[in-house]
User: Which sequence fits this backbone?
């Protein structure tokens, strides 16, 4: 890394300083980017609000801590190569700082982020190109292209006016020599070097074509534009003048260009990669793009032997294709700790990253050995073109065969202003008959309101060929559409608001089914005895018979020995809106476990004599407003498989009690009121709804996600064997003055059923919630006159609860931590009988 011949040869210290700064840049960027993503994930997992200033603050810290030493090596050393290194890294740092600011945009608005990334990267490429040219001339006029002793020499040692040797120039249409990709009138055929860069970029893209899946059409187009802009930015930073600093001397030294120039280019690409993508989707590029620096160096070394400088085109193509994979093939919201451990998207992103890194390293070695030599032939344009076409065909076959072809973008959840008027619903006779009459009247009013108020909107969506699904439990429609459709819908007078209904992208292979590793219980589980449910069976002779419990979750293993006998059966007791399965099944295990705690036999369930119906609202343990509504709507009026909820619903078959061990946070598309009309309708129909408080404790005010925040839902926290409220159990209070949680139940170390006939011990308010639903089933089984009397049932549950032990942080009072206390099944059933 020495300048060319001169009166005095600089010592090694500038090179050592540059190496140390490079190591500092790599270490800081890798650690800070990973830490920033981890902070985002911890905030998400704990239910705390996302810190919008996290990434802008990190941008400022990066510029201060990395920019200062980089500026010094850009100005002080006498070595032109070291100064060029510093200036290139400094430009990369400034670009990174600007790109990090874009992460203040919420991840749910991915199209907006991609559009901002494309525009910002393109603008940075334009500005950086001008500033770098001026900096090279203004800071050191002797380093202006082609003016000083350090000007790049070609094979003949003679430099052209732009720093590229005369032997390495080609003639453009105007007869003036120029490197490929630097401008000129008309389109010129790509050189062999550029075609080899395209082939390398396609190989980097291949792992993402295999494991990833595209989003919507607009999202995919914007990802392509963003990748192209990032490639253009890298092309400006690693232009002909940059590479020229590492090829000085006569004859040039390609080995130094590949090794030293490749290292410097790799650090530059690390900076570009760190700013490419939302939080999470930039991490794969941090590993796969830096080795590309050696590939680019080898390509430029080969260009020296062809008499045609590579210019910026190889950099644009190779970096652009390398960035396209993670930008287009993954949803950053799915690169989350919430899906870690289930061989879901984070696992496959890691697989693609490892494969991409291996490809990049192999390309660096292969191109470095094959092209980065002083002598030897360079593949002709025809050979390089055939190579690129073969690789393109192979990547296309991977995508069509092993990949997930098609578009898999998010949908829109449109909430209408008018919601059904459910006031004045007749209470009817006490017991099941009166409850059934209320369900029928609520269903009739909901359907009538939706049919009337949605008619115009449905007609317009059909005319625009936008696939849509109407709902009545909440007067809403889920539809295809991007930001443009969302803006059009938001302006319609009948629309209250438009939410993004998240949809998980498909995987190359389904996650493995979760099986339990525990033996079946030999008697009532400890949690069953703690709340006195076993005494209800043995002393009062009540097991829940005559009551149906509905579960909305990840599914149910209907063949499990503890659950098979309780399935109500018939064509309207199971609904899977995700895959349209006809028989109960569960890959996750969450739904099987929770239902087992409610109605499972063999000592795991509170009400083993009750029947159950099920619905799948979680796909790989995540949902969206529409799928949550699908299941709640099915519970109000079940319908046969393939039936129309509006016309084929059977209110008389509605279960009496619903257990819901889920919540709908903003990352899934819900706002605080998204499902409020649904729970209000279920309340009016006399259906008892139990919901989990969440696992975002011990923070106060951590019960935040619907439906746990609603006043007509009984919200359940968790305690351990010692009646101590668990640290993870979410706390109140809740906005709008609603006191939550209502009760607590055992939720730590709960043994219950798992798919395949197994058992497992799990923790969470998800485990506590079905036990309270089981207690309600026991109460209504013991006294059918209570069926549909929600107020009296809640009052009994609260009045008979026993004290729990809140944590030291009471969040303003014990009630905000443990509600009325620990549910007592025996006392509640005795009170119901009395």
Assistant:
């Amino acid at each position: 890394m020495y300048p060319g011949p001169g009166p005095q040869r600089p010592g090694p210290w500038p090179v050592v300083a540059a190496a140390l700064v490079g190591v500092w840049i790599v270490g800081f960027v890798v650690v800070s980017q990973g830490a920033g993503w981890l902070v985002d994930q911890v905030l998400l997992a704990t239910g705390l609000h996302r810190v919008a200033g996290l990434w802008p603050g990190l941008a400022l810290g990066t510029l201060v801590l990395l920019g200062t030493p980089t500026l010094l090596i850009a100005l002080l050393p006498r070595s032109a190569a070291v100064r060029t290194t510093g200036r290139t890294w400094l430009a990369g740092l400034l670009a990174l700082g600007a790109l990090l600011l874009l992460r203040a945009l919420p991840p749910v608005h991915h199209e907006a982020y991609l559009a901002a990334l494309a525009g910002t990267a393109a603008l940075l490429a334009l500005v950086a190109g001008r500033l770098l040219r001026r900096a090279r001339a203004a800071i050191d006029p002797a380093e202006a292209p082609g003016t000083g002793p350090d000007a790049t020499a070609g094979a003949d040692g003679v430099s052209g006016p732009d720093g590229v040797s005369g032997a390495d120039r080609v003639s453009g249409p105007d007869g003036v020599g120029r490197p490929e990709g630097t401008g000129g009138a008309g389109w010129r055929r790509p050189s062999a070097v550029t075609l080899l860069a395209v082939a390398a970029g396609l190989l980097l893209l291949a792992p993402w074509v295999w494991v990833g899946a595209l989003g919507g059409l607009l999202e995919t187009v914007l990802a392509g534009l963003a990748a192209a802009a990032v490639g253009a930015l890298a092309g400006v930073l690693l232009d002909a003048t940059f590479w020229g600093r590492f090829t000085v001397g006569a004859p040039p030294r390609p080995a130094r260009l590949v090794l030293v120039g490749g290292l410097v280019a790799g650090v530059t690409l690390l900076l570009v990669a760190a700013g490419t993508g939302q939080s999470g989707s930039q991490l794969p590029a941090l590993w796969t793009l830096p080795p590309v620096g050696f590939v680019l160096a080898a390509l430029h070394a080969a260009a020296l032997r062809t008499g045609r400088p590579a210019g910026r085109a190889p950099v644009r193509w190779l970096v652009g294709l390398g960035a396209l994979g993670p930008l287009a093939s993954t949803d950053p919201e799915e690169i989350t700790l919430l899906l870690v451990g289930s061989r879901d998207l984070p696992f496959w992103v890691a697989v693609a990253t490892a494969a991409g890194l291996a490809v990049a390293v192999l390309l660096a070695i292969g191109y470095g050995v094959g092209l980065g030599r002083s002598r030897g032939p360079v593949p002709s344009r025809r050979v390089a073109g055939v190579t690129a076409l073969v690789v393109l065909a192979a990547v296309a076959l991977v995508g069509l065969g092993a990949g997930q072809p098609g578009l898999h973008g998010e949908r829109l959840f449109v909430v209408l202003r008018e919601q059904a008027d459910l006031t004045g619903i007749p209470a009817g006779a006490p017991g099941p008959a009166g409850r059934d009459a209320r369900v029928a009247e609520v269903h009739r009013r909901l359907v009538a309101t939706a049919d009337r108020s949605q008619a115009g909107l449905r007609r317009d969506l059909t005319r625009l060929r936008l696939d849509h699904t109407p709902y009545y439990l909440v007067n809403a429609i889920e539809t295809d559409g991007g930001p443009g459709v969302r803006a059009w819908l938001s302006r319609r007078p009948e629309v209250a608001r438009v939410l993004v209904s998240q949809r998980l992208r498909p995987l190359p292979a389904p996650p493995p089914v979760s099986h339990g590793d525990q033996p079946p219980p030999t008697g009532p589980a400890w949690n069953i005895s703690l709340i006195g449910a076993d005494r209800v069976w043995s002393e009062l002779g009540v097991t829940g018979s005559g009551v149906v419990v509905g579960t909305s979750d990840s599914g149910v293993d209907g063949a499990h020995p503890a659950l098979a006998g309780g399935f109500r059966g018939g064509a309207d007791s199971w609904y899977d809106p995700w895959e349209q399965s006809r028989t109960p099944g569960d890959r996750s295990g969450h739904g099987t476990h929770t239902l087992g705690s409610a109605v499972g036999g063999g000592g795991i369930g509170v009400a083993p004599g009750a029947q159950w119906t099920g619905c799948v609202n979680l796909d790989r343990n995540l949902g969206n407003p529409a799928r949550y509504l699908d299941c709640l709507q099915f519970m109000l009026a079940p319908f046969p498989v393939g039936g129309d909820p509006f016309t084929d619903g059977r209110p008389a078959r509605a279960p009496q009690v619903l257990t819901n061990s889920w919540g709908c946070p903003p990352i899934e598309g819900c706002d605080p009121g998204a499902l409020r009309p649904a729970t209000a309708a279920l309340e009016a129909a006399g259906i008892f709804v139990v919901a989990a408080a969440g696992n975002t404790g011990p923070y106060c005010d951590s019960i935040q996600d619907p439906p746990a925040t609603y006043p007509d839902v009984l919200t359940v926290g968790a305690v351990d064997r010692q009646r101590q409220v668990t640290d993870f159990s979410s706390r109140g209070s809740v906005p709008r003055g609603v006191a939550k949680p209502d009760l607590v139940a055992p939720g730590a170390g709960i043994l219950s059923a798992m798919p395949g006939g197994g058992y497992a011990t799990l923790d969470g308010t998800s485990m506590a919630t079905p036990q309270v639903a089981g207690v309600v089933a026991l109460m209504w089984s013991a006294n059918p006159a209570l069926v549909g009397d929600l107020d009296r049932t809640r009052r009994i549950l609260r009045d008979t609860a026993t004290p729990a032990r809140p944590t030291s942080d009471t969040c303003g009072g014990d009630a905000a931590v443990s509600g009325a206390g620990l549910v007592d099944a025996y006392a509640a059933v005795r009170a119901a009988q009395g």
The chain has two domains: 13-401, 526-833. The two ends are 92 Å apart (CA to CA). The longest strand covers residues 495-501. Residues 1-8, 142-178, 181-186 have pLDDT under 50 and may be disordered.
